[in-house]
Each structure stands twice: as structure tokens, then as C-alpha cells.
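mind reviewing this fold:
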Amino acid sequence: MKYDPNKKQSRGIERTQRAFAAAMFNSLAEKPFDKITVNALCKRADYPRATFYNYFDDKFDLLDFCWYKIAQDINIEIPNPNIDKSTIIQNFAQIYKLFDQYHILFQNIIDNNPIDSQLVNHFIHYFTEVIYESIKCNLNLKAIKAPAELVAQHCSTTIIEVLKWIFLGKHDVSLEDAEEYLNELLSGPVQV
């Protein structure tokens, strides 16, 4: 991202970034990502184009900021020493609750942006990476035999696959059932 969101922000900067993020989400709920222009985002946010480019390189950079803000809201980037399966399931529950809370908005976005679209792929990739890094950085390396990268990739991919199956596949699944599915998949459902 062009502008480091981890730095302390003034209220004015936060307000401007929130306005652009809201403009992006509202636009995504109405039309496909590839039809959204920077000019339209600026008009919707009520800021000049130059202000947009003070904070973002392009609409993809704004999209990264939007995903960052969501990830920040669900606390999946907060370090958790010696992460274990219960911690992974807790993070999964936070993501599930967020998706459930914004179900209508996400559904409108998906209705306008097909599952195989650039936007949905970008979203999936971003969250897979965030979850991967969170898990990898916090694994208790003494408790596992497999390489940390492999374990983190397996866990993050499994979390995303369960969420995709539920929310993109439009399966009506309770949080409790979703947690059971994830637990089973992380435990290895196939017995040899």
C-alpha cells in the first residue's frame, strides 16, 4: 500500500481513507470491480482525484486498504504466542462472524463480481496471505515436525476453503457447524 496504515494517523487522514473505502464498498455492491473508476470513487467519496493519489496508487491499492481494514477489525494480525488449533478456530470464528455480519453487502458484491472474478480472487489471496503470515509467525516450532511454512499454508488454505464453501457457495451453515468442519479438516478427516 502506498500509505502505511500501521502509522499513527490524524483524524483527517482516517476520515479521508474511510470515505474512499466506503466509496469502494458501495460501488462494489452496485457493479463489477472492473467497471469502477478512480474518478467515480472520487466523486462518490467527495474528494478530488489528487487526494485519492495522495493515499493510493490505484484502485487495487485502495482495495488492499479495504481488505486491511477488515483484517484489522477481526484481529487476525494480532500476534498470539504459540498458536494452536483452538487459536486458529477462534480466528476463523472472527472471520465467520464478520462475513455473517456483512452478509448482505458481501452478497451484493458477489452478485456483481463473479466468484472467478479478479476482485474475488484478490480478496481470497489477500486473506489467505494474512492468515498464513499470522499462523506462520506464531507457530510453536518445537511442537511441530513439518516446516512452519507448510503448516501455515495448510491451515490458511483450509480456513479460506471452508469460508468459500459457506459464503461463496451459499451454504447455510451455523458457526458451530463451520467450526466442526474446520476442526475435522485440520485434524485430517481421512484415516489411513
About this structure: Residues 74-187 form one domain. The radius of gyration is 18 Å. The mean pLDDT is 86. Residues 9 and 15 are 10 Å apart (CA to CA).
